[in-house]
Write a structure and sequence with these properties.
By secondary structure, this protein is mainly alpha-helical. Helices cover 54% and strands 6% of the residues.
Length: 580
């Protein structure tokens, strides 16, 4: 090599480095220009808040590539709220392994991975895991981890001590010194990085780890309501499987293990695990009032749990706020003396209203609380109560206020005679009677008195009412309101005589409903064609000529039509019959 060639090569390398630096600078600047704002609302512990700082953080801390080719993917995950800034301890090793093992992966484009967990799962099989002997050695030598329970089936529960030794044990055993957040897990509490969150959680409550007999691990932290699998995904007792829910594969192991963790009962209730006991529910009910707002959904789950008992409902009523008191009073298991106390002693309108609606309240008590009460909404709660005595409905109807009449006539305990009485006293309230499943045919006919759109709602209730007779439906088909006539067509008692009327309706929507009715025959379809004289609404034409019951002769006539749409529809119909 000549001296000149040597210096030319040196100059080329220097220029290449400058070009690479410029390329990186331009790539990062491009992302900053394209993202003038970045939403951080999902990231409560965000370190950076400006778009420039956030992108630099992702490029410098999360992206291991020299040309920062993955920074855009990291930013995309953050904008989709899939990751937080603190998750770079997971992101960087995952991308390092992606680059290292890309040739072995099915998906070789980083943008094909929709979530960080998906990327981690893809690279994980290509990374060696610690041997069983090594893992056992770690369990033996760890000073920061205590075995608190071991069941006969091999399930173990460990407490990670809230000390520096506990943190080291978490990293050593569950983090494995780094890589995907750890050889074994992706927990931030086991990360071998500056973003390790062990101290943040353990100062609130010691972390516990459940080991199942087949080697899976779950981290529990009742104080913050977290139960995470090894991939740092939330765990619940039932998981979606197609159109139904099935128990989590480790539901029984986890549920029993949680019995040996302080506050574990809270997680059992919150995460819908089996074998919830009185003690578990009591632990939820006993959550201090100052923490109740943060745990409201868990408390509500306990109050509606099938294993809740009257004594726990009373305890919750006495211990908690007005909002929780109302949830207690919605449960029919709530003791009657608690309901009466709420009505008579608690100075809170919402509490009184819910208490008056509880079906455990007796008829005599409902009558007592109704008489002389001035608040019409509270009277309405009493009249809507399934346990309200029938004679109280007559008093309400005679009282005559719209609210009382409304609630009295809507109560399912109001029989046909009571509804007739109510309508005779208040004819304009007939639609309220029609909201009652006990409305008789004569009341339904009153609802069908046609005033056009003025009483369209009442007419539609009448046409849809389960007690509507064939005669009621004939009257409904005479309505000026299209929706009422269409509702009559869909009624279970709609018959062939109704069908003939509906097929002659002057609105294509009603005719279309009739053409879809199972009673339709080839003769009906022929009559529709004959009546149209070649002028038929496109929707009706499509329904007729695509109908499987259309006769062969009418189908052949359609195939010879001059209308191209009719020919197309008829051709599809013929092909569907196998006449190629």
């Amino acid at each position: 090599m000549t001296t000149n060639q040597f210096f030319q090569d040196i100059q080329y390398l220097l220029e290449s480095q400058q070009y690479l630096g410029l390329l990186l600078e331009n790539r990062i600047q491009f992302l900053k220009d394209k993202n003038p704002t970045i939403d951080t609302s999902h990231d409560a512990l965000a370190i950076h808040d400006t778009p420039s700082d956030i992108i630099d953080h992702f490029a410098n801390v999360g992206d291991p590539s020299k040309n920062k080719q993955h920074t855009q993917w990291i930013l995309g995950q953050y904008k989709k709220k899939n990751i937080r800034q603190e998750d770079m301890y997971r992101v960087r090793p995952a991308l390092e392994h992606f680059d290292k093992y890309k040739s072995k992966l099915d998906k070789k484009d980083i943008n094909q991975y929709k979530t960080l967990s998906e990327l981690e799962s893809a690279v994980r099989p290509h990374i060696g895991t610690a041997s069983t002997k090594k893992e056992e050695k770690q369990e033996t030598i760890s000073k920061g981890r205590t075995l608190v329970h071991q069941s006969d089936d091999g399930t173990k529960v460990y407490r990670l001590e809230p000390t520096e030794e506990g943190k080291k044990a978490s990293i050593s055993i569950y983090g494995g010194g780094g890589g995907l957040g750890g050889t074994h897990t992706s927990w931030c509490t086991a990360a071998d990085s500056e973003y390790n969150m062990f101290d943040h959680y353990s100062k609130q409550q010691p972390l516990h780890v459940i080991h199942t007999p087949d080697g899976e691990v779950y981290q529990a932290h009742p104080k913050t309501g977290q139960l995470m699998d090894r991939h740092d995904e939330d765990v619940i007792g039932e998981i979606e499987d197609g159109e139904s829910y099935v128990p989590h594969k480790h539901a029984e192991h986890i549920s029993k293990a949680l019995d040996h963790i302080p506050g574990g009962g809270i997680l059992k209730v919150d995460k819908e695990f089996p074998n919830v006991t009185h003690k578990d529910l009591d632990s939820v009910i006993s959550i201090p009032e100052e923490d109740a707002n943060d745990s409201y959904n868990t408390i509500k789950s306990a109050l509606t749990h099938p294993n809740i008992t009257p004594d726990l409902l009373e305890k919750a009523f006495n211990n908690h706020s007005f909002y929780i008191k109302q949830d207690v009073l919605r449960n029919p298991k709530t003791p009657t003396h608690v309901i009466k106390h709420a009505i008579e002693k608690v100075n809170h309108w919402g509490v009184k209203y819910v208490a008056m609606s509880n079906p455990s309240l007796g008829g005599n008590d409902i009558r007592k609380y109704y008489i002389g009460r001035q608040d019409q909404d509270l009277r309405g709660a009493l009249l809507s109560n399934p346990s309200a005595p029938k004679d109280l409905f007559k008093d309400a109807i005679d009282l005559g206020t719209p609210s009382d009449v409304n609630h009295a006539m809507k109560n399912p305990k109001a029989d046909a005679d009571m509804l007739r009485y109510g309508v005779s006293k208040h004819p304009h309230q007939v639609y309220k009677a029609l909201e009652n499943p006990n409305a008789p045919p004569d009341i339904i006919d009153k609802g069908l008195i046609d005033k056009g759109w003025e009483n369209a709602y009442g007419q539609q209730l009448a046409a849809e009412h389960p007690n509507a007779t064939p005669e009621n439906l004939h009257n409904a088909l005479k309505s000026k309101v299209v929706a009422v006539r269409a509702a009559a067509v869909e009624h279970p008692r709609f018959n062939e005589s109704h069908l003939k009327v509906a097929l002659n309706d002057n609105d294509h929507f009603v005719v279309g409903k009739a053409l879809r009715h199972p009673l339709i025959t080839s003769e009906h379809l022929h009559d529709v064609i004959a009546k149209s004289n070649g002028e038929v609404h496109p929707m009706i034409s499509k329904l007729v000529y695509s109908h499987p019951k259309l006769s062969d002769s009418d189908l052949e006539n359609a195939l010879n039509s001059s209308d191209p749409h009719t020919i197309i529809t008829a051709t599809k119909n013929k092909n569907s019959r196998g006449n190629k």
